[in-house]
Task: structure prediction
Amino acid sequence: MKHTKINKLITENIEHPEITVKGWVRTRRDSKGGFSFLEVNDGSCLKNIQVVVDHSVETFQKYASQLHTGSSVAVCGPLVRSQGKEQGVEIQAKEITVYGGANPESYPLQKKHHSFEFLREIAHLRARTNTFGAVMRVRNRLAFGIHKFFNDKGFVYLHTPIITAGDCEGAGELFQVTTLDLNNIPRVNGKIDYKQDFFGDKTGLTVSGQLQGETYAMALSEIYTFGPTFRAENSHTSRHLAEFWMVEPEMAFYDLNDDMDLAEEFIKYLFHDALSHCAEDLEFFDARIHPGLLENHRLICDAPFERVDYTKAIELLGKANVKFTYAPEWGCNLQAEHEHYLSETVFKRPVMVFNYPEKIKPFYMKANEDGKTVRAMDVLLPKLGEIIGGSQREDDYDILLQRMRDKDIEEKEYQWYLDLRRFGSAPHAGFGLGFERLVQFVTGMENIRDVIPFPRTPKNAKF
Ligand code: 4AD
Ligand code: MG
Result:
């Protein structure tokens, strides 16, 4: 018989002569009066459905010894108004099947509360907890919202390659891809002979789809990529993964202000969308994980983001009445502590910092007339820090070439990229949003390892 998702039964909240649900037992409680009460969850929503089983039900007798926390079941029977105080519905089981038991001696999810550290060790089972079910439903909605936002605006979803020869951000964080025999590496004059490698070239996993995205923006006007990106950076923080998902819109005929407008509209849209489609899960996060979360989100949805020039930001940090670990100096990257100070103490809202020094930014950003800064922007969120990095791109052939030479970038390898400035060049801009950081912010989860199904971090690619 076809089964119904628990989510549908709970939201509709109407009685039914006979339905079937399938899911996993969260708890079992036996009463003295010859009944068992099961809480069953199928992941379609946070709530469980209560199943009442009379011990005289034939199939209960057959399966009783296997019905424990963690078992998978099918339950069939009428859906009736619950006697409990919540005025919901419950199933009076007429028939019950256990597909697979879960031995209480060995099934690890017995307690109501497990630490996130413990759950990371059993990432294959943590999906069966309230928190991880909620995280993944919110993550799913945010991914859907991203596609909806851009498609409604007429952006084209572009699939950029995972394997590439270029290091877009120039930070040397490429994971290498090779089929060379590591025990017998071919060399010419002491140097590795990549001609013999699979692609005949040194290749790696992409750190960003931006450069390829630009080629299609210069034809389709507005595109976005949304896919996995990889960075071999040895960061052990609650904000970094070695494999993360990034959304990268790229737009022809946009300048830096247009870029910032889009970034702000995008973030606000995603919050609204999640608030209206994941209300139950977000209320759970607000109550159990991050008190005040929903209030914060509403503030972000309503107030305009602050926009501040990098030079001004450094000035504000210089005047701050706090002792930073890293002194804020013009020409240095903003550290997490600086980002937090700006968004949490100075402005108390999301902040976009723009016009960064040329020296600390990649080669492709458009130079300002001052000769010192480039049209870069970062979006900083309170408590989280950087969620978006973007820029207007250098569209002048000669200036771009000069910047590549200054930064020791192989011209030959980027000839295709330079061509975009030789043929029909146009002002254009874009940004990258770290998807897991977005999920972190929306759910209030502390650690980025807990918002992706299987986190990849230094020394950890288990599962
Ligand atoms: O600031 P980033 O490095 O910018 C770029 O890659 C540009 N090519 C984007 C563009 O203009 N199209 O990265 C963009 C965002 C960061 O703001 C951050 O949210 C996220 O990607 N990010 C990470 N998220 C998780 N783990 C990491 N190791 C991350 N590195 C960057
Ligand atoms: Mg960045």
